[in-house]
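Loading example: each entry is read as two labelled lines plus one structure line.
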Amino acid sequence: MVERKEVRIHVPVLARVEGEGALDLRVHDGTLDRLALRIFEPPRLFEKFLEGREYREVPDIVARICGICPVAYQMSAVHAIEAAFDVRPGEWVRALRRVLYCGEWIESHALHIHLLAAPDFLGAENVIELAARYPDEVRRGLRLQELGNRIIRLLGGRSVHPVSVCAGGFFRAPTPAEVTEILAELRAALPDAEALVAWTASLELPASDQSFTSVALRHAHEYPMNEGHLVTSDGLEIAIERYGDYFQERQVPHSTALHSLHFPSGMGAEQMGRPYLVGPLARINLNWDRLPPAPQDAVTRSGVRFPSRNMFHSIVARAVEIHYALLEAVRILEQYRSPKSPAVPVNPRAGVGYGCTEAPRGALWHRYGFDDDGGVVEATIVPPTSQNQARIEEDLRLALQAYGLEHPDEELRRFSETVIRNYDPCISCATHFLRLHVHRA
Amino acid sequence: MKPRIAVHKFASCDGCQLAFLNAGEALLKLAELVDIAHFAEAGPLDPDGQVDVAFVEGSVTTSEDAERIKRIRDKSRFLITIGACATAGGLQALRNTADADDWIASVYASPEYISSLATSTAIARHVKVDLELWGCPVNGRQVLAAVRALLFGVPPVEENEKVCIECKRRQTVCVMVAGGVPCMGPVTRTGCGAICPHFGRECYACYGPAETINDASLGRWFQGLGLAPDAIVRRFRFINNDAPEFRDAAERIAASHRPGLPGSAQD
């Protein structure tokens, strides 16, 4: 093989990711001397046009940040609003919000596993090719995706930008007949979800053993969705309001998404910020003991172990969360009773509210300041993908060196894309994905 | 040879592409009927190839994108916009009435790294559009119906009647008449299934303006329900704020409430 001294690889549009980005690699004398995950999704400036809007308008506005995880944006927003106005929506609302979130996890994870990630591990270019070779597996995935969407439609009217979430609760409660009907479908899908866990664990995933910091919510006795403290794998546990003391967004020249870094000893300390991981693998690494026996047993049978240092176990973590979300939705809906009212009253007041919930891609943090009438004075939104961006670059650097930079450009491109896609980056959220530029020198 | 289609993305939330990606079995069927030449999120990449139908999601917010849409137009027999961003500039067109540089400076510490136009504009402001599918988001029924119609060689049916008509068909009790809720249904295009009133809440006009709207009358209704003028204006300046009918309505309502001007509320 001819020794190539200088190599530049440029992937101009990364496919099978949500949004627009590109990757630039420059290899000089066999070492990687530049790696930049460029996000060029145009900035849409949501935080600015929230200003001057009324609190009631917020859930419909923030949903538009992301079509794949609108529920997550609505959940973080309503929890922040309710915290600012000291509203306690009660058990019924709490339980049904959990069901709605189950729907989004199922829909988003099933879409990512089958349409975006699995083709990488089975040598297909896309889901259409995959469906020709694995028709049963792809159809099983599409059925699960549709079931997730069904849950969102039941509670929210439509699966993209659902219309029923409001501060205080919901605009409408489903009827017992509607709940009975969907319960039967959810129960019938449980074998599909269990089989999916086994299938993702059986894929030939690349070997990877990396040290990284996981960050996720942790709740006293549940697998985390809407509530909990923020915890890290290096032992930090903080209230969500203190996020800004330990994590900070920085702007980098090559990206319209801000990069978040973790400062384990607090912002004042003299130290470098570190990349960290949010999302399904971080969640399961930190909350394995919060999963009920059935999903734990399915994982044990599959041979995969959590916590895991193999980033490619993310696809298994997504399947486990689909299995869990189905079980959880069944558990809650089996006890369903129609409420007197689907929402509690909301009385706005001046103040600041924080919300942090577990979007399919990881912790989604919101902070709002309100005036006396509930008008938004300021808004800050930290999406999962901007938190993961530094970690993706770190992973790529390590993974490419381990893979071997002598591989032809086309193989480097494919491998890089696989690494990036594994994070399920949502670039629409992070502002938006990939073109690879490899420069070899 | 099968017809070739493309799905292109501009500034957006990706939610309208989900009309394809959430279609399940219909997505596999579609792949049998047509050749999906370019659809980055689904995998196929051929942004510059000749296609029969190009679906465009998102609005134009950068000078590169203003050029890219022209190249897409040149290579497409039919160009169909999907959703509020592509059809009317989207929610992010709210920057058009603000100082976008100022906004970018307040969100990004080093605004010089960000290249962005001051405006977010509809695709039709840049190139000829053959069909506009409204909605935030568009749904699978709208998109697949358009594909089917084109495959049959007939023009797709335009849905431009009002949400109110859809409510009547669904026998949904009017939230404005019965509940005193300021509903945008009387000026909003149907296609959504009138889900908001069915859920007991007001329509917020995510499907854009219906044909021949009477915004002045609706504005008076809203005033009667106790809405302050700025709250009425905000209802028009929302998801489809840069649709000409809504933009003009918001401007008229705002102007009629400016103190000291003819026709103001103080007269």
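The radius of gyration of chain A is 21 Å.
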